[in-house]
Amino acid sequence: MMFRKLYVFFSRKIRQQFKGYYSGIDIEIVKDKEFVLISNNCWGGSAYQWYKKPYNTPFVGLFIYGPCYLKLLKNFEQYMGHSLTFVSKSKYPSIGKSYPIGMLKDIEIHFEHFKSEEEAREKWERRTARMHEVTNLDRYFFKICDRELTTKSDLIEFHKLPFKNKISFSIKDYDELKTCNHIKVLESDKKKACVPNGKKLYELTYLYYDLNKWLIE
């Protein structure tokens, strides 16, 4: 276990130190293949930054709690047609942070990395418009992980959704997901008993999964 921790630590640091080199290899593999990433947290935004792609998804710089995320995905096209509004308080337990909380009808969107409602709305609407330019849902890639109150049941429901491209990450294996694109991650956020935050999870994804292959198939 100690060797594993050291390997992960140093290999991750090396990839970040020589990010231009490793990122360049992946960019060359994916080339100009079109994709839209839908993610429940910053994992997706980190992917766009790695591949140096413009954000053609509004799911950047934010997170969505598991119950809301599943509800959103079950009626994805309908919800994405709603206008964004804002509320002053979340229905979920407070995490002691102050940021805009958006609403798509009854779906909460936590704009954790935005300074104001105006900024969140402007970027959400602009990136949503870009997303809608991609009309082939087979080029949409949906990701979920066991953070933000996402349960085993949520993960199972996620893989029942009628989307071609789905991937989930968790610190646990589940028999019900043996035949699904579900990844058990050894590294964890021990305080929350789940996978690391979205940015770190993306930085570790290369250890578990060939993201390039997923995006170009």
Q: Structural class of the secondary elements?
A: alpha/beta
Oligomer: single chain
Quick one: overall form?
Answer: globular
Helical content stands at 40-55%
Q: Would you count the extended β strands for me? A: 7
Spatial gap, N to C terminus:
34 Å
Order of helices and strands: HHEHHHEEEHEHEEHH
Radius of gyration: 17 Å
* Strand line-up across the major sheet: 1-5-6-7
Would you mind describing this structure in some detail?
- The chain has 217 residues and is of the alpha/beta class.
- It has one domain.
- Helix content is 41%, strand content 14%.
- It contains nine helices and seven strands, in the order H-H-E-H-H-H-E-E-E-H-E-H-E-E-H-H.
- It has a four-stranded parallel sheet, sandwiched between helices. It has a three-stranded antiparallel sheet with strand order 2-3-4.
- Strand 3 and strand 4 form a beta hairpin.
- The longest helix has 16 residues.
- The relative contact order is 0.16.
- The model has no long low-confidence stretch (mean pLDDT 95).
